[in-house]
Amino acid sequence: MINIEVAIYGQLAQVFNKKYVSQSHIEIKLGAKVKDLYSYLSISPADTTYIFINAVLCDVPGLNAAYDEPLHDGDHVGIFSTGYMWPYQYRDGAHITDRLREALKKHGAMHNTYDIE
């Protein structure tokens, strides 16, 4: 098992019985990926926008590039609900994962929505 810290912003904060922002430490199986975290939290990827792991951008609205991103002991995962735009603290840019970089190359620049085949 690994321990991660999860911060959820927006209406999805209800997962932890909060109104706008929730933060919780959880234990999840070793080898878990973001898709496993969604399942553990009973969150639909369609209800998320930006996903950060350790302050590195892993996903943007509609791309689902973070599904197979591995989680590690001690990670901090930030999940933004739909309706929440680019987080203010990243207004000057953000580090992104290789998976997201490849998805953006395939689908073009960042948008608020994507038409995925």
Descriptors:
117 residues; alpha+beta; five-stranded mixed beta sheet; globular
Descriptive notes:
This protein has 117 residues and is an alpha+beta fold. 15% of the residues lie in helices and 27% in strands. It has a five-stranded mixed sheet. The model has no long low-confidence stretch (mean pLDDT 84).
Summarize, please.
With 117 residues, this protein is α+β, with helices and mostly antiparallel strands. It has helices at residues 34-41, 98-107, and strands at residues 2-9, 21-28, 48-53, 56-59, 76-81.
Can you lay out the helices and strands and say which pair or pack?
Elements: E1 2-9, E2 21-28, H1 34-41, E3 48-53, E4 56-59, E5 76-81, H2 98-107
Parallel strand pairs: 1-5
Antiparallel strand pairs: 1-2, 3-4, 3-5
Cα shape: globular
Please give the alpha-carbon distance between the first and last residues. 35 Å
User: What is the number of beta strands?
Assistant: 5
Mean pLDDT: 84
Q: Classify the secondary structure makeup into a structural class.
A: alpha+beta
Quaternary:
single chain
Instruction: Give the helix level as a range of percent.
Output: 10-25%
